[in-house]
From TrEMBL:
Pfam families for this protein: DoxX_2 (PF13564)
Record's protein name: DoxX-like protein
InterPro entries: DoxX (IPR032808)
TM helices/strands, residue ranges: 38-58, 63-80, 86-104
Keywords assigned by UniProt, alphabetized: Membrane, Transmembrane, Transmembrane helix
Localisation: Membrane
Gene Ontology CC, one term: membrane
Topological type in the membrane: Multi-pass membrane protein
Amino acid sequence: MMHAISIWLLAAGFFGAVVFNAISTSATQSDFARWGYPIWWGILTGGLEIISAVLIALPVSRIVGIALGAAIIVAAVFTVLRHRDFSHLVPLGVFVVLIALAATSS
């Protein structure tokens, strides 16, 4: 049961992240600019997140989706640590926990 919940929460989390990254709120655009990323970086990130969510949702590609999602989150953690923008660590920590749960049960 926990296995299915963690997988669906992870997929939903990546779908939700698309709203903040690809659709790009003004706060998200400001964050990306402050971190030195180009204007299109949110679209790229959101695109990778949607791919990850779809791959996680499909049992045949789940492990690839989890790996892609983990790479996205690792890059995000390094970015916020490098720029000492610690307020972003809480949601990233939730993703880390969900990825760990989903990976250990896949």
